[in-house]
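Re: that chain you flagged

S.,

Sorry for the slow reply, it's been a week of failed gels. I finally had a moment to sit down with the sequence you sent. For the record, here it is as I used it:
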Amino acid sequence: MKFFRNMDALKLVILLSFGAAAVLGVWDWFLYGELQASRRAFSKAKADISTIHSLLKDISPLYVARQEHGAAVDYGVYFEKQLFMGGIKQDQYTLNDVREKEVRVSRKKKAIDKELRIDFRTRNKRDRLYLPRENLFKALLACEARSKAWRLRELRIRSRDDVLRKKKEDGYPAEIADAWLIEDLVFASREPQQKK
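Prediction finished late last night. Pasting the structure tokens below so you have them in one place:
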């Protein structure tokens, strides 16, 4: 420990430079390994570089189209994922088939309206799904925000206190619990009708 007792600025600088050299040596060794790995990968892909380049041009538009219209094409997977983010499990609801109907937007333009009804009804009243309002709104926001195609068209909810009330004359309690039953949930998508 005499070495540390008689430490002056020069000895401190020399000691720190040895430590820094060791750290930089380890970092250099790591970077050299990464460089060698990238060179090996590039040499393997050299033969396919023109194919990869042409595929990259095709992937970008596909990705954009998937982001914009993916929910419209495969609505089931899309809604399952978004509702799960709101804390709603797949066995707690039923996705009905999409219903299509022709609507007139203006005198000359027609469109196709697609409606998707999500059913939360159960046969047994005890198994009803009551959600906190925050989870419900989180799921609805996720469904709308991540798709340019689907929008919330109809939502009807009732509080658990209202559902379990015996008589209408009883009135509401002073404070309503944050548990909501979804009675009706409909999402809609409108597409311009293709000219025949």
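What I noticed first: The chain has six helices and six strands.

Talk soon,
D.
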